[in-house]
Amino acid sequence: MTTRIETNDSSLPLRRDVKSLGHILGEILVHHGGTELLDKVEKLRGMAKTLRNQFDEQIYNELKEEIVNLDTPMRKQVIRAFSIYFHLINAAESNHRIRRRREYQLQDNHVVQPASIESALLALKENEIDVTTIQNVLNTLSLELIITAHPTEATKRSVIEIQKRISTILKSLDNNMLTKKERKKLEDSLLNDVTILWQTDELRDRKPTVMDEVRNGLYYFDQTFFDVLPEIHQDLEEGLVEQFPGHNWEVPNFLRFGSWIGGDRDGNPNVTPEVTWETLERHRDLAVKKYKEALVEVMKRFSHSTTRVEVSKELLDNVEKEEAAYLENEKKWPVENEVYRRKIAVILARLKEVGKSEIGYQTSEELLKDLYLIQNSINNHQPALRELKMLKKLIRQVQLFGFHLATLDIRNHSGEHEAAITEILRKVKVTDDYTALSEDEKIKTLEAVLKDPRPVLLLNEDYSKETQEMIKVFTMIKKAHDTFGKKSILVYLVSMTQAASDLLEVLVLAKEAGIYRLHADGTVESHLNVAPLLETIDDLTAGPVILETLFKMDVYRNHLSIHGDSQEIMLGYSDGSKDGGTLTANWKLYKAQLEIHDMAKNYEIGLKFFHGRGGSLGRGGGPLNRSILSQPAETIGDGVKITEQGEVLSSRYLIEDIAYRSLEQATSTLLEASVNLSEESEQQHIRETAWENAMEEISTISLKKYQSLVFEDPDFLTYFTEATPLNELAELNIGSRPMKRKNRNRFEDLRAIPWVFAWTQSRQLLPAWYAAGTGLDSFISKDVENLKLLQRMYEEWPFFRSTVDNLQMALMKADITTAKEYISLVKDKEIADRIFNNIVEEYEATKAILLKITGDEELLDHTPNIKESVHRRNPYVDPLNFLQVELIKELREQEEPNEELLNEVLLTISGIAAGLRNTG
């Protein structure tokens, strides 16, 4: 049975670390700014802390006056002091997560950590799930995590790496066996790294290029994923052997990472076909580099001699043959009897030439064949498995990463494809104006083109620059398949999919590039999955009809048959939330999955839902395992695909131990949920019709409330633009992609990331909670029994529990008192007061109704660690908010651009982002 650790106060070591780091920062402040700087920071911190404990208007006004009266040099130092403090807290909390995990592992009575691989396997054993069922589930288990370059990571790489070093030192200091000398050395290193942090620029001096973003993404493959992914698979396999002995367990490669970075063209003109090609080359180069490093380590240990062991004849013959073929100009391994080392020398020589000459491996399958040859030979004479684990891990790495490292998804806007198709079809006189056709006419036209083997592209025709670029994209994909393998690019995502023709247009472009082919005998070749991205509330509602239209078409069914009769569908959490509010968006997403799943079942089509979640609560963020559980149970067995964006990468995957824990939680959750589904247990049918009806009613009311403010209030956009640092965010160099889809001042063209980022900075966090309270309260007010219904939904329905908990988190991070400061930035006082009062009223109503549903006295009572973290940070975030308001006010009054003022504003933005651990 799973038990919990009982401690008097598990956060004491964390508090000790935070206090220690605070003292070090204090020393550095004195060194660089004298006692005056430290005293000022301490005074502001103390006043903010007092206000948090009990609001006092006099202290509140004194705090504001202190901030207003700061001179420019001191003000900048104060901003940096609070910002640096958050980076130190983040490092300490990262180490504390590792510490808590180790506490479970070190328990004498073998305490099992919840949501671990071991706890999942114990649960399966206790429920007497048979091994055949478990193996069948493993064979279909699938979790894909896709890293993106969405610009939500406000912290520079150099700062992130310093945080990592500080966290590592704190971990080392936990060792009770350290000598006095060793401890002194670590403490000196800690002081040095905090000093370096203070002396490092927090802000980027230029916007990152796409290739900068590619390098940042590859950092996590190099430092974390390459080792952690095989470890998860290995630990699951060993756990199965331990809990269910006697069965020959095989754990397939169910957990993978992919990428959008370098392939996401939607709204980013900097992602060209040439950039995507360079990205694929970088992927291959890193994969080869990692294999070389691993093989060098394997070679050190595989010194077996043929005078001591009997090596397989197949391996001996292979080595003799390949040394002659591949080491003709290379130095052969000097010791003839060390056959394994001789073979590894050949492998290294061939890896060196990958992508350069015919000597190099052409596919990763060829490399695997050589590794299996070594493994099979060693199995004949190796009594223990310990030494083999290194080779086994390498084999798993090659299986997982190949030479492509990570499958690169390509994404583009549906309008871009339509424009290209319109020009192409006009040139060949198929139709004069494709865009003017009805949807039925578009489908008939595209079907006819797909059923005709003849190309529609004219070889010598001059197309517009935009159409030529689109043609180059698909030509590049075909070349990538030939050079890097089909796995290098598997999926083409269509943003703003609004009709079936949006997907058929992509197939036509693929056909012209030779990626989709119709042969003379009527058979079809198709090497690219085409996936719709359903984003807005209207698109989510129309999703089932769009897909059913495609499933009814022979030409599309033939395409799907090549891909195992499976359709990938991406669901956008950002634009749906921006369009209809977080509660309505989450319900529409859930409902769309159910409707599409039921419809696809009738056509015997398998589905994979791709969840485009952001890091922030307003864009579907939250713990990975909770994201999985909140999906309809029926869809989990189809496989899960989720984006991992911006600051999520550093918070989850910067440190190997934390990366392992996050992926372990996701694995255990997915495994248990999939087994429950396959067993047709009660958990599969736990969702009740009354719950769905309740959500539909709540969602409808919530949507109306949300849109009455965001779309129907003529002054709302003015309030949003002026009462948040939206315009200043554009100057923060955190992404290669523009803030707006088009250079227009329309709400519809504003991207969801700056929308959420700006609200978060102003502590209003409106996208993450607004209108939920009205929907929930209206439902409860109708019938006294409805509160009991919602309480039961919270206890028994993972989707509703996740929704309510995320709302609680949003309200906890929001702060009305601090947010009130931002209304002074709005020029029209009537607009400011009216809209802010609306927000405050909804905030209070939402908080009250959530506490009724959960039965708690305060928000997040059920998650004390998170609650304490928010409380720990708030007194230090508040001064930054006050400073930000004063600086923005001063900046906007300037007739000429003031770089110094802007720089200070950007420093507050970076500091608040670090403090709240959320941006967009």
Automatic annotation (TrEMBL):
Annotated EC: 4.1.1.31
Catalytic activity: oxaloacetate + phosphate = phosphoenolpyruvate + hydrogencarbonate
Record keywords, A-Z: Carbon dioxide fixation, Lyase, Magnesium
Molecular function per GO: phosphoenolpyruvate carboxylase activity
Pfam families from the UniProt entry: PEPcase
Domain of life of the native organism: Bacteria
InterPro entries, alphabetized: PEP_COase, PEP_COase_bac/pln-type, Pyrv/PenolPyrv_kinase-like_dom
Functional summary from the UniProt entry: Forms oxaloacetate, a four-carbon dicarboxylic acid source for the tricarboxylic acid cycle.
HAMAP family registered for this protein in UniProt: PEPcase_type1
Quaternary structure annotation from Swiss-Prot or TrEMBL: Homotetramer.
Protein name in UniProt: Phosphoenolpyruvate carboxylase
Protein species of origin: Metabacillus rhizosphaerae
